[in-house]
Amino acid sequence: MKITLIGTGYVGLVTGTCLAEVGNDVLCLDVDPRKIDLLKSGGIPIFEPGLDDLVRRNVAAGRLQFTTDIEAAVHFGDIQFIAVGTPPDEDGSADLQYVTAAARNIGRHMTGYKLVVDKSTVPVGTADRVRAAIREELGSRGVDIDFSVASNPEFLKEGAAIEDFMKPDRIVIGTDNEQATQLLRRLYAPFQRNHERLVTMDIRSAELTKYAANAMLATRISFMNELAVLAEKLGADIELVRQGIGSDPRIGYHFLYAGCGYGGSCFPKDVQALRRTAEESGAPLRVLNAVEEANEAQKSVLITKLKARFGEALAGRRFALWGLAFKPNTDDMREAPSRVMMEALWAMGASVTAYDPAAMEETHRIYGDRPDLTLVDTPMKALADADALLIVTEWKAFRSPDFAAMKSLLKAPVIFDGRNLYDPATIQREGFEYYPIGRRV
Ligand SMILES: NC(=O)c1ccc[n+]([C@@H]2O[C@H](COP(=O)([O-])OP(=O)(O)OC[C@H]3O[C@@H](n4cnc5c(N)ncnc54)[C@H](O)[C@@H]3O)[C@@H](O)[C@H]2O)c1
């Protein structure tokens, strides 16, 4: 099949590449010429395990191409995926300007039937807006060309995106006509040879499903984070509580880890956008107000512990940070807790030496050169002369470090662990002062 991806970011590039891998002809469009130039010259604009090999292989096979030429991209694909960003608007609702622009471009240039598929995370009713924008453009051209609009929200996780796309738990498809359903069924057939994974529904339900999934996951995290704060007050251990409740199959173990807050390009904005939709519809989701509030508070939990230990006048102090990305296996820093922590430390006069296996360039892009931020290329180098270590992202490489070497490098053996990586008894035996989240120490 001939497929166009409109938007070549995390979702567009992964989707396009995986669809090419199973034999489709794919053209990825982006309005950012630097991104397209980089891809054309063999580079990969994002860090995503396994993606570079897959892109190279499919480009070499002639199945995957990149362009900034909007007209060519619209002509190319029988299926046009819209995978552009939907960042939060000032009031928290999803900003649909990029989705609408993509839809208008399709209406402006299409000459035959197109199936337009919203893959971006978009509020309920967006398919109607996409349809209206295309119709308006066709109208102003004075032509009447058949097209359909469908919703196919994406559930891939950054850091495991290829695996998620190639072996999805489910593929949600919202359509209002059989032709569109059949086309998408054919497109996704290679990804469900083992068993049926397609969940078909109406468009509005599909649009809501994506928000409901992210809001549910964010709710689990915030619930556990608040419970961790309570556990500390009560002298209980959140890790034991997690195991105790996770063993119940109605609850399960996933997404029950207490930590220093969720971030990333999805949960914060999707929770906000769903709240906004709910308020506007007169059916407020009160639980989500608490989810958001708890998360904002949680991003400062390590800093609160640090202030209790070192006081608030931190001028002259230096802190080591392990982990900058909002989660492991990505370089994505959007809404990352590390940013809240670094900014709080800087505001109190401290400086930061930080290490992350993937997000150093991104950190430098965001903060530039500044005297109170030093980026180093190994975790151990970050510790030299630091008053304490803050662990912010649970990269595997941080799980079993050389504690003796760490002790000799740090000014004092103090660890604030925002991801509960270590067993409190063991690390205390190693001679560290240890401040985890919700654990008994
Ligand atoms: N990142 C994730 O893990 C993830 C997972 C599931 C769903 N989503 C959703 O998918 C959507 C895309 O997310 P992302 O992380 O890939 O975003 P991104 O910011 O990485 O990529 C979006 C791309 O779209 C391009 N673009 C904007 N307007 C365009 C236009 N008119 N024509 C062509 N290209 C255009 C931008 O230049 C950018 O490269 C969002 O709605 C997001 O919520 C993201």
From TrEMBL:
Enzyme class label: oxidoreductase
Pfam families: UDPG_MGDP_dh, UDPG_MGDP_dh_C, UDPG_MGDP_dh_N
Reactions mediated catalytically: UDP-alpha-D-glucose + 2 NAD(+) + H2O = UDP-alpha-D-glucuronate + 2 NADH + 3 H(+)
Keywords: NAD, Oxidoreductase
Positions that bind NAD(+): 30, 35, 86, 121, 158, 269, 334
GO MF terms, alphabetically ordered: NAD binding; UDP-glucose 6-dehydrogenase activity
Name under which the protein is recorded: UDP-glucose 6-dehydrogenase
UniProt source species: Propionivibrio dicarboxylicus
Species classification: Bacteria, Pseudomonadati, Pseudomonadota, Betaproteobacteria, Rhodocyclales
